[in-house]
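Sequence dictates fold. Next comes a concrete instance:
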Amino acid sequence: MRISEHPILDFNQGRGAQITFTYDGTSINGFENETIAAALHAAGIFTLSHSESGRPRGIYCAIGNCSSCMMVVDGEPNVKVCVELARDGMVVRTQETRGTLA
């Protein structure tokens, strides 16, 4: 699900070029200047990690202040995907271990 019309935001300039990256082995389409979390959300993926008790976590703050969206991106753990831009060819994986905040 992506917003195509909005009363304040202007989408006439376009979304940028379409890109493709992988998420846990699945090909995901996104757009330049779109965060990883936004591309995953648009693809119907709402669970980004799990709490220590196993409960699903998704986008919470969307400004990089919490740890709910940390994933492994191109082999680097603890990447906050709500603020990290998606890039063509990147590899995104669910983080199976507990993340840490710097």
Q: What stands out?
A: The longest helix spans residues 36-42. The chain has one domain: 11-96. Residues 60 and 66 are 7 Å apart (CA to CA).
